[in-house]
Write a sequence for this structure.
C-alpha cells in the first residue's frame, strides 16, 4: 500500500508537470492576449502596446515559463493579469462554493438513483417492466435536455413562479441558510442529469448480478428479497457504480460552468470562463493545475474505495 | 449528511426570500438601491479603466474638470466652474473651492489636477489614454484654484479630454500612493459616491459621499449585484431582488418587462455600428461597390423585424445629437436596382464573394442572416468567418479582414472622426480599418478641431462629413439604444450618450 502511494505520488508530480507545461504553451498559442481581450472594441496600436508592457506580456516566452515554474514550486500563485488580485485568494474563495455544489449533487444523486436503479433492475428481472421502461424513458429525455435549458426552466418555475429560491444575491458561506438557498437550484439542475445516468448504470449492473448463481443460492437460503437485493446484489454491483461516481464528479466540475453562469454563482467554473475569455494566463494556468490535482485525487480515492469494496483488488 | 424537516425547509426558503424583502424595507434617510451589474468588474483606476460598466462606476466615484449633461450630452462644469480660451490652444480653468476627496483625503486644488494629468502622461503609468492627453505641453497653477493648460495645437474638443471620463478624472496623489499596485480597487475621487466594498465575483457596494460638492445624493447605498445571464437578470428584477437592471439587451426580455409595467429607461442612438471595408480586398477599393452594398441592405426593415426597441437604421458616421452633425450628406436608401447598376458599373455585374469577420461567441447573428440574404439578392455572397473573441479583437485591430463591424461609443465627435479617418490612425496603429487617407479630409479634420469660430468650424465639419459619406469608406448600418429597465419607484435614471447613469440624479420613492 505504501509502495502504491509512493508510486502514485511520483506519477502525480510527473502528471502535474506535464499539465503545467502543456497548459502554459497551449494558452499562449491561442491568438489574442489579455491586453487585446481587455481593450475590446475601442483600443489599438500604441495604447495596446503600453498595456502589454504593463502586463508583462512582452517578456520572452521562455523567461515567462521559467518564472512561472519557479513561482509554482515556491507555491507563489501570483496575481491575476487583468484584476491584479492574488490568484490564491480568488481560487480559495471559489473552491468551497463549487465543491459544495458538486458534493451535494453527488449525495442527492446517490440517495435517489441507487435505490431507483436497484428496484428497476429487480422489476426487470421479475418481468414487470413498467418502472424499468419509465426509468429508461426518463433517463433518455433528461439526457437530451441541455443543462442551460433546464437551468432556465427551473429558474422560471422555482424562482419566479413559486418564489422558493432567489435568482441572484451574494453567495457566502458565512450564512449557511442563504448559501444553501442560493446553491439549491444549481444542485437540482445538475442532479437531474446525474440521477438519470447513475440510475441507469445501477440498473444494468444489478440486473447482471441478479442472474448470478450466488444470488440464487442466497434466495435458496431463505433470505428475504430485500436482503438479497440490497445486501448481495447491490454490493456486488458496487464496483462499476463507484467508477461512475468517480467519473461523474469530474463531469460535474465541468457541468458547474454553465449553471454557475446562469445562477451567478462565484465558483471556479465562473473563474475559468472569465480567465479564458480575458486570456488571463496566470488565472487559467493555476485553475487547470487545480483541476488536474483534483482529478488525480478523485482517481486515487476511487482506487482506495475499490479495494474496500472488493478485497480481491490489490495494488 | 444533510437532513431537513419540513419546518427547517420552510425557514431555509424564507431565508432565501429575505434578500428582496430587505431591499424593499427602506426609510427615507437610508435608502438602498440594488442594481444588476453584468460582468466581473475590472477595476476603477481612471488611467487604466476599460469597458462601459466599469466606467459607469468610476463616473460616480470621480469628477472631471467638466462633465456631461445626462440628457443632452452637452459639456457642463464639474470641478471647473468656468474656463476660457482665445485660440483653443491655451485653456484656463477656474476650480470650485472646498471640494473634498472621499475618505478624508483632503480638498482639491490645482496641484491635484496637474498631478492627475501628469500621471496619465507619465509612461510609467502605461495608460492607454496617454495618446488622448499627448497634446498637453505645459500645465501651470498660478494660484491653488486656477489651472492653465497649453496644447501643442489648437483643439476645440479639449473640454471632452478633461471631462469626467477616464483620463479626465481627478485623483488624489496621496490616495494613489497609498494604494500601491491596488489603485484599481482603491479609487478615491470627489464624486457623489465612494467605494465602500467590493467582491470581484459578486458585489460592488457604493456609499453616498456626504461631503459631495453638490450636496449628498438622495440614496445612501447602492449595491451592484453581478448577474451575467440576461434571463436571470430579468427574473431578478421581476422577483424584486434588484431594483434596476444595468443594460438589458435582449428584445424578448424588454418585451416581457414592458408588458409587466416596469420603467423602460433608455437612451436612443447611443452609438453607430459601422461596416469597415478593407480596400486591400480589391472590390472594396471601388467606392461604387461600397455604395452598392449600402443600397443593397434595408437596415430599417431588419432592425424593425428583429430588435425594434434596441436599434434602428442610420445614415451617417456621426449621430444626430452631436453638435457638429450635418444632415446635408448623401444617403443610401434601400434600392437593390441601384445597387446592381453600381456593381455593373464597377465591373462586378456578376457579383463576388467576400468574408465578414465575426465572433464564434455571437455566431451568425439574426441581423447578419438578413444581411446575407439582402446581399444575395444583388449577387453578393457574404461568407461569415467566425473566430473566438480575443482572436477577433486582435485581427480586427490588425486590420486582417475583408469586412468587419465596429461600434465606437463616443460623445466627442472628434474621437470618432479622427479614429476612423485620420491616416495616423490606420490599422494596426489605430482604428482606421478602412485605411482611409484623403488629404483634403485630413486637413479639414485638423482645421475644424482648431477653429475657434463655431460657424466656420461647423461648416468644415459639414464639408468633411459630405466628402466621407460620398466616398463611404465605412458603411453606417444601425444605431443602438440602451435600456436600463427598473421598478417604477426608481426615478431619475437618465442614461447619457456614453450609456452611463449619474446616480446623483437617481432616487427611490418610498410608498
Amino acid at each position: 500500500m505504501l509502495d502504491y502511494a509512493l508510486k502514485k505520488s511520483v506519477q502525480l508530480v510527473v502528471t502535474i508537470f506535464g499539465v503545467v507545461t502543456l497548459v502554459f504553451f497551449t494558452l499562449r498559442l491561442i491568438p489574442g492576449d489579455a491586453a487585446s481581450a481587455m481593450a475590446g472594441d475601442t483600443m489599438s496600436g500604441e495604447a495596446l502596446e503600453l498595456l502589454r508592457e504593463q502586463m508583462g506580456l512582452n517578456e520572452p516566452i521562455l523567461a515567462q515559463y521559467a518564472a512561472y515554474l519557479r513561482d509554482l514550486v515556491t507555491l507563489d500563485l501570483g496575481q491575476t493579469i487583468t484584476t491584479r488580485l492574488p490568484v490564491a485568494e480568488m481560487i480559495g474563495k471559489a473552491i468551497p462554493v463549487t465543491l459544495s455544489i458538486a458534493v451535494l449533487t453527488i449525495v442527492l444523486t446517490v440517495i435517489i438513483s441507487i435505490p431507483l436503479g436497484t428496484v428497476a433492475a429487480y422489476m426487470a428481472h421479475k418481468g414487470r417492466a413498467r418502472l424499468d421502461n419509465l426509468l429508461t424513458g426518463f433517463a433518455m429525455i433528461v439526457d437530451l435536455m441541455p443543462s442551460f435549458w433546464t437551468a432556465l426552466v427551473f429558474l422560471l418555475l422555482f424562482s419566479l413562479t413559486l418564489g422558493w429560491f432567489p435568482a441572484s444575491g451574494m453567495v457566502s458561506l458565512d450564512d449557511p441558510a442563504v448559501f444553501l438557498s442560493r446553491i439549491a437550484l444549481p444542485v437540482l439542475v445538475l442532479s437531474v442529469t446525474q440521477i438519470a445516468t447513475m440510475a441507469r448504470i445501477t440498473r444494468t449492473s444489478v440486473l447482471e448480478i441478479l442472474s448470478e448463481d450466488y444470488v440464487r443460492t442466497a434466495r435458496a437460503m431463505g433470505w428475504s428479497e430485500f436482503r438479497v437485493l440490497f445486501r448481495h446484489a447491490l454490493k456486488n454491483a458496487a464496483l462499476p457504480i463507484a467508477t461512475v461516481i468517480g467519473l461523474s464528479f469530474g463531469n460535474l466540475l465541468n457541468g458547474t460552468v454553465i449553471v454557475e453562469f446562469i445562477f451567478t454563482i462565484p465558483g471556479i467554473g465562473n473563474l475559468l470562463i472569465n480567465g479564458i475569455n480575458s486570456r488571463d494566463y496566470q488565472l487559467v494556468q493555476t485553475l487547470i493545475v487545480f483541476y488536474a490535482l483534483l482529478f488525480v485525487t478523485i482517481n486515487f480515492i476511487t482506487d482506495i474505495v475499490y479495494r474496500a469494496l472488493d478485497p480481491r483488488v490489490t495494488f | 449528511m444533510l437532513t431537513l424537516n419540513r419546518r427547517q425547509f420552510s425557514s431555509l426558503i424564507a431565508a432565501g426570500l429575505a434578500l428582496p424583502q430587505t431591499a424593499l424595507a427602506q426609510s427615507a434617510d437610508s435608502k438602498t438601491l440594488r442594481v444588476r451589474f453584468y460582468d466581473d468588474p475590472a477595476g476603477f483606476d481612471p488611467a487604466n479603466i476599460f469597458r462601459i460598466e466599469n466606467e459607469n462606476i468610476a463616473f460616480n466615484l470621480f469628477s472631471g474638470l467638466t462633465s456631461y449633461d445626462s440628457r443632452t450630452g452637452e459639456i457642463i462644469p464639474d470641478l471647473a466652474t468656468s474656463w476660457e480660451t482665445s485660440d483653443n490652444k491655451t485653456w484656463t480653468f477656474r476650480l470650485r473651492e472646498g471640494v473634498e476627496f472621499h475618505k478624508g483625503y483632503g480638498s482639491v486644488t490645482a496641484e491635484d489636477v496637474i498631478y492627475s494629468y501628469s500621471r496619465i502622461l507619465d509612461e510609467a503609468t502605461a495608460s492607454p489614454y496617454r495618446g488622448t492627453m499627448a497634446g498637453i505641453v505645459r500645465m501651470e497653477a498660478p494660484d491653488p484654484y486656477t489651472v492653465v493648460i497649453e496644447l501643442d495645437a489648437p483643439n476645440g474638443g479639449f473640454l471632452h479630454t478633461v471631462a469626467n471620463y477616464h483620463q479626465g478624472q481627478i485623483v488624489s496623489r496621496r490616495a494613489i500612493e497609498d494604494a500601491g499596485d491596488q489603485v484599481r480597487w482603491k479609487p478615491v475621487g470627489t464624486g457623489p459616491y465612494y467605494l465602500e466594498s467590493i467582491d470581484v465575483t459578486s458585489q460592488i457596494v457604493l456609499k453616498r459621499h456626504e461631503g459631495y460638492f453638490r450636496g449628498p445624493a438622495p440614496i445612501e447605498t447602492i449595491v451592484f449585484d453581478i448577474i451575467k445571464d440576461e434571463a436571470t437578470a430579468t427574473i431578478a428584477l421581476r422577483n424584486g431582488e434588484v431594483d434596476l437592471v444595468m443594460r438589458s439587451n435582449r428584445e424578448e426580455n424588454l418585451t416581457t418587462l414592458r408588458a409587466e409595467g416596469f420603467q423602460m429607461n433608455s437612451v436612443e442612438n447611443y452609438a453607430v455600428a459601422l461596416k469597415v471595408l478593407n480596400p486591400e480586398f480589391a472590390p472594396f477599393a471601388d467606392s461604387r461597390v461600397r455604395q452598392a452594398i449600402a443600397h443593397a441592405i434595408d437596415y430599417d426593415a431588419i432592425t424593425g423585424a428583429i430588435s425594434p426597441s434596441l436599434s434602428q437604421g442610420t445614415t451617417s458616421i456621426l449621430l444626430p445629437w452631436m453638435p457638429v452633425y450635418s444632415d446635408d450628406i448623401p444617403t443610401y436608401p434601400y434600392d437593390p436596382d441601384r445597387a446592381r447598376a453600381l456593381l455593373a458599373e464597377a465591373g462586378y455585374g456578376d457579383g463576388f464573394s467576400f468574408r465578414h469577420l465575426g465572433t464564434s461567441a455571437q455566431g451568425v447573428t439574426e441581423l447578419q442572416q438578413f444581411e446575407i440574404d439582402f446581399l444575395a439578392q444583388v449577387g453578393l455572397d457574404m461568407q461569415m468567418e467566425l473566430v473566438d473573441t480575443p482572436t477577433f479583437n486582435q485581427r480586427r485591430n490588425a486590420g486582417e479582414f475583408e469586412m468587419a463591424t465596429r461600434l465606437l461609443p463616443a460623445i466627442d465627435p472628434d474621437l470618432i472622426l479622427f479614429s476612423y479617418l485620420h491616416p495616423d490612425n490606420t490599422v494596426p496603429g489605430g482604428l482606421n480599418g478602412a485605411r482611409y487617407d484623403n488629404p483634403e479630409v485630413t486637413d479639414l479634420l485638423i482645421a475644424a478641431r482648431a477653429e475657434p469660430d463655431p460657424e466656420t468650424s461647423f461648416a468644415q465639419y459639414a464639408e468633411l462629413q459630405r466628402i466621407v459619406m460620398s466616398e463611404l469608406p465605412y458603411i453606417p448600418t444601425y444605431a443602438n439604444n440602451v435600456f436600463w429597465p427598473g421598478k417604477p419607484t426608481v426615478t431619475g435614471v437618465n442614461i447619457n450618450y456614453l450609456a452611463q447613469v449619474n446616480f446623483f440624479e437617481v432616487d427611490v420613492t418610498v410608498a
